[in-house]
UniProtKB/TrEMBL annotation:
Membrane-spanning parts: none
BP GO terms, sorted: amino acid transport
Protein name: Methionine ABC transporter ATP-binding protein
Keyword annotations: Amino-acid transport, ATP-binding, Cell membrane, Membrane, Nucleotide-binding, Translocase, Transport
Family named by the database record: Belongs to the ABC transporter superfamily.
Pfam families per record: ABC_tran, NIL
A single cellular component GO annotation: plasma membrane
Source organism of the structure: Virgibacillus indicus
Occurrences of domain ABC transporter (ranges): 2-241
UniProt-listed InterPro entries: AAA+_ATPase (IPR003593), ABC_transporter-like_ATP-bd (IPR003439), ABC_transporter-like_CS (IPR017871), ACT-like_dom_sf (IPR045865), MetN_ABC (IPR041701), MetN_ABC_transporter-like (IPR050086), NIL_domain (IPR018449), P-loop_NTPase (IPR027417)
GO terms for MF: ATP binding; ATP hydrolysis activity
Length: 343
């Protein structure tokens, strides 16, 4: 759906040149929710604004749905932008217009007749969950409601792509989750491709299929969200994974676990994309004559399933414990490692 080749942006300020986006090449598939994460100044906002030429590239090519955005003249670019919706951190609503008139605005610009416009606005209001607030002004809305207006307005002309520039950064955690759920809902209902930039790894974890990590204008790491959680290669990526998983002080912890729990086996269970065996521990205890004591762990949910580690103490007859471990190996995708066996 989106193909980016050698995209660059160099700003010149006070005779100094600053490369905000540095020769970036990337492909994004149709229907994907693609996350771009990076710290402040990494070049994320500039990157996303280059895609619809809110910022003019210094070099490179952007092709969206077979149309080369970077070579369009201004009239054709205006038309192409109708196919590329965008939402912003600070919503960018028109304060003198009601909810419904904000949503109608891009339809007016596209020259849609009044009756059709009104029908479309109502559909969008229902889609984003704003029924009953049609005639409110932005100043009368909560942050979450304002972003719902932003989303409805961005979807008005039925775009194929939605760009989200830190769309939840101004919202509290609960509202953030509600807006992220809405984005997933829209992605599924409309098959829309979403590119989302953020500095928060939990946003990536919750809704993205793919993630790219940006640092100093470059993409330093990219892949399936679960793979990046599992094998973060760059220091910056490890820091982002730690935002969700906590820092790993595992070596110290292991010594403490082993000296505290002296009986049976201590087993590390590594969940990677597990979706079907959430009740693993209770299943093991029912099937085999083993006692399982949960010692420590952290498991988080990504869109591709659960990810994380759980340490358990397993006790019972050696034969039963071995059968239980064999079961995990053969029947589930959980990786199992016996890190201490007292028997
Ligand atoms: N219009 C501009 N003129 C000059 N420099 C700019 C301009 N816009 C951005 N920059 C610089 O480009 C670099 C990347 O900025 P950008 O806003 O894209 O980063 P970001 O990753 O989105 O960070 P943030 O989340 O803080 O906005 C920064 O060093 C910034 O100061």
């Amino acid at each position: 759906m989106i193909s980016i080749e050698g995209l660059s942006k160099i700003f010149t300020a006070d005779k100094q040149k600053l490369t905000a986006v540095d020769n970036l090449t990337l492909d994004i598939k149709d229907g994907e929710i693609f996350g771009v994460i990076g710290y402040s100044g990494a070049g994320k906002s500039t990157f996303v604004r280059l895609l619809n030429r809110l910022e003019e590239p210094t070099g490179g090519r952007v092709v969206i749905d077979k149309q080369e955005i970077t070579s369009l003249n201004s009239r054709k670019l205006r038309l192409a932008r109708q196919e590329i919706g965008m939402i912003f951190q600070h919503f960018n609503l028109l304060w003198s217009r009601t909810v419904k008139d904000n949503i109608a605005f891009p339809l007016e610009i596209a020259g849609i007749a009044k009756a059709e416009r009104e029908q479309r606005v109502q559909e969008l209001i229902d889609l984003v969950g704003l029924s009953g607030r049609e005639n409110a002004y932005p100043s009368q809305l909560s942050g979450g409601q304002k972003q719902r207006v932003g989303i409805a307005r961005a979807l008005a002309n039925r775009p194929k792509v939605l760009l989200c520039d830190e769309a939840t950064s101004a919202l509290d955690p609960e509202t953030t989750n509600a807006i992220l759920d809405l984005l997933v809902d829209i992605n599924q209902k409309l098959g829309l491709t979403i590119i989302l930039i953020t500095h928060e790894m939990h946003v990536i974890r919750k809704i993205c299929n793919q993630v790219a990590v940006m640092e100093k204008g470059k993409i330093v790491e990219q892949g399936d969200v679960l793979d990046v959680f599992l094998r973060p290669k760059q220091p910056v990526t490890r820091k982002f994974v730690q935002q969700v998983m906590g820092s790993s002080e595992e070596d110290d912890d292991l010594q403490l676990l082993m000296s505290t729990y002296k009986q049976g086996k201590i087993v590390r269970l590594h969940f990677i994309g597990e979706t079907t065996n959430q009740a693993l521990i209770s299943q093991l205890a029912k099937k085999y004559a083993v006692d399982i004591n949960i010692l420590q762990g952290k498991i988080t949910q990504t869109r591709a399933g659960a990810y994380g580690t759980l340490f358990v103490q397993m006790d019972g007859k050696a034969e039963e414990m071995n059968k239980a471990i064999q079961y995990i190996t053969d029947e589930t995708s959980v990786e199992v490692e016996v890190i201490r066996d007292a028997n």
